[in-house]
Automatic annotation (TrEMBL):
It comes from Deinococcus wulumuqiensis. It is a multi-pass membrane protein. This is Threonine transporter RhtB. Residues 157-290 form the EamA domain. Its main location: membrane. SUPFAM superfamilies: Multidrug resistance efflux transporter EmrE. The chain crosses the membrane at residues 50-68, 80-100, 106-124, 131-148, 160-179, 186-205, 217-235, 247-267, 273-293.
């Protein structure tokens, strides 16, 4: 999915060197995230989107705790005042995205979610030319929206949930920037994931109940957490040390296409030509504004 990744603090510790160069590492990270999202969708019949989100975020938080062993006791009340909004935004972003994914093909859900950060980039930009990129994205959204019977059916609640996920993504970026400036290393990220787990768990318990404790589903949830959070997070942390943020932003613009391909290969979700054109418009707009607009300091992360 989005899915979105943990915001990186500029003081985060350097991860171990990867055997891959930065660009292949980022490509592998995107493939891992979208493949993980496709696999997560296959768990919806057993857990529902709420249960799947709760399992993924909770297990991802546990993996980060084990991997980094942050000193959470050292966090002050002021630190938590920055971390809690970040974690709440992260939890709600994942919940709304997975509920959108229940109603939409993976490629369309990711494309609509991208609208949020794209509009944030326009707001932070001081260039008139960036309006053109947003207009191109607007063309993409118009192509997704149904116009007449021949355009196909778009699930409007699903589209609304995907756009809501994009809005929470914006909140996550802004709150993550504040956490990254205030809390050293990955401590703020791990604490934020714990808050996100607390946000998601009530939805998961309400929807999946004791199913969250089934050994086979716990193992599947662990795989989703690993491929949607832990592995891409590690790959991106390493790659971001070696490439400029703008290059990172352009490469991330490939995610809607990778999501659509993952949905086609793993979930047999076929998009129409019109939907592929819409996806292309949003991806090109995202790449263009990544090259020209000022962007917030927080980097993206996943559920």
């Amino acid at each position: 999915m989005p899915r979105p990744r943990p915001a990186l603090s500029p003081r985060a510790p350097s991860p171990r060197a990867l055997p891959l160069p930065p660009l292949p590492a980022l490509l592998l990270a995107m493939l891992s995230i979208q493949g993980g999202a496709a696999f997560a969708k296959s768990l919806f019949p057993a857990l529902g989107p709420g249960g799947t989100t709760a399992l993924r975020v909770t297990l991802a938080a546990a993996l980060l705790l084990l991997a980094f062993r942050p000193n959470l006791r050292a966090l002050t009340r002021a630190d938590w005042q920055a971390i809690v909004p970040y974690g709440v935004a992260l939890g709600l972003m994942n919940l709304s995205f997975y509920f959108a994914l229940q109603r939409l093909p993976l490629g369309l859900a990711v494309t609509l979610e991208f609208v949020g950060p794209l509009l944030l980039s326009l707001f932070l930009s001081r260039r008139v030319t960036d309006v053109g990129w947003v207009l191109l994205a607007a063309v993409g959204i118009a192509l997704i929206a149904p116009v007449g019977e021949s355009a196909g059916h778009l699930d409007l609640p699903g589209a609304g949930l995907a756009l809501l996920a994009g809005a929470f993504w914006v909140a996550y970026i802004l709150a993550g920037g504040a956490v990254g400036r205030r809390v050293p290393g990955v401590t703020g990220v791990v604490a934020g994931m714990l808050v996100a787990a607390l946000v998601a768990l009530p939805f998961g318990v309400a929807q999946a109940g004791s199913g969250l404790l089934r050994p086979d589903l716990l193992l599947a949830g662990l795989a989703v957490a690993l491929f949607s959070s832990a592995l891409p997070y590690s790959l991106e942390m390493a790659a971001l040390r070696a490439i400029p943020p703008r290059v990172f932003g352009v490469l991330m613009s490939m995610e809607p296409a990778i999501a659509a391909l993952s949905g086609w290969l793993l979930l047999h979700e076929a998009l129409s030509l019109r939907q592929w054109l819409a996806l292309l418009c949003v991806a090109v707009a995202s790449a263009g504004i990544s090259l020209t607009a000022r962007r917030p300091e927080a980097e993206r992360a996943a559920v």
